[in-house]
Task: inverse folding
């Protein structure tokens, strides 16, 4: 039976009401942009300029995913730190064991689901993602502020969930497992190799199926209904009871699918290939495929 994780999504109306209450949650702006460079590769751009110049949800603290919540020793982007290191980083930002947390971002929601997944990976279950993100908040004419915010440091206990992430050996094992499905969460043109944007070699992990994270959302940036999400994942037989390994370019969009499966639909066996194609596609010994082969 599916394990339903409650209160993983919060509406803009509910957040607006809670911000004025004595028990207001800690709010974090997780905005990040990954810009393809014409010569190849990518540039990471934080949400700092928009946070300062356009503004942010009142009270929100900016998180820098690469600088604050990624392993500085890794040569790859956005690699998750060790659980104890990650817990200290979140605690330094003000998240404690009893904190209620709301995560949002501008643009693609999976920057917020990445932070949710990182928190879930260390056993923290009191975080919610703002459904619709900043796009919906602004479309409704809700207020922004420009003052930079911080929260006082807190104490956060790491209770690691080793199942949250998998390495390339785990992906290879899943590809050989009839009760597992490996899901590419990138857009169709990246999956089939027709896009000029890739991570070393075009295409996808051979044997994987495509459920683009971008297809999980309504036009207003809210998640589709649980019934609609379930139908989407049924197309690749990613049902509860099967192991699902989600990947993308660097472990970000993959958390959109993983969040939908684990947190919204309650699937039990969902994991993220953290280094994803930025590792896989640059290793010629690992199999890739395109639409034509």
Result:
């Amino acid at each position: 039976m599916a394990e339903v994780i409650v209160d993983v999504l919060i509406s803009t109306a509910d957040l607006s009401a809670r911000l004025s209450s004595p028990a207001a949650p800690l709010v974090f702006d997780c905005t990040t942009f990954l810009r393809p460079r014409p010569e190849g590769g990518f540039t990471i751009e934080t949400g700092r300029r928009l946070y300062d110049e356009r503004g942010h949800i009142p009270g929100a603290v900016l998180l820098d995913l690469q600088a604050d919540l990624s392993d500085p020793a890794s040569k790859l982007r956005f690699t998750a730190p060790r659980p104890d290191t990650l817990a200290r980083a979140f605690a330094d930002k003000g998240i404690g064991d009893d904190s209620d947390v709301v995560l949002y971002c501008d643009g693609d929601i999976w920057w917020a689901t990445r932070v949710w997944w990182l928190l879930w990976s260390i056993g923290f279950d009191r975080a919610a993602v703002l459904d619709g993100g900043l796009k919906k908040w602004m479309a409704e004419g809700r207020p922004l502020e420009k003052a930079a915010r911080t929260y006082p440091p807190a104490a956060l206990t790491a209770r690691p969930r080793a199942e949250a992430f998998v390495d390339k050996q785990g992906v290879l094992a899943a590809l050989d497992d009839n009760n597992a499905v490996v899901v590419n969460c990138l857009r169709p043109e990246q999956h089939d190799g027709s896009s000029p944007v890739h991570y070393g070699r075009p295409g996808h992990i051979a044997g994987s199926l495509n459920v683009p994270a971008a297809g999980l959302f309504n036009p207003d940036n809210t998640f589709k209904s649980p019934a609609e999400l379930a139908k989407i994942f049924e197309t690749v037989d990613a049902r509860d009871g099967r192991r699902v390994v989600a990947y993308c370019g660097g472990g970000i969009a993959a958390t959109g699918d993983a969040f939908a499966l684990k947190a919204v639909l309650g699937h039990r066996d969902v994991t993220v290939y953290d280094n994803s194609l930025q590792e896989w596609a640059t290793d010629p010994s690992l199999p890739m495929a395109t639409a034509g082969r």
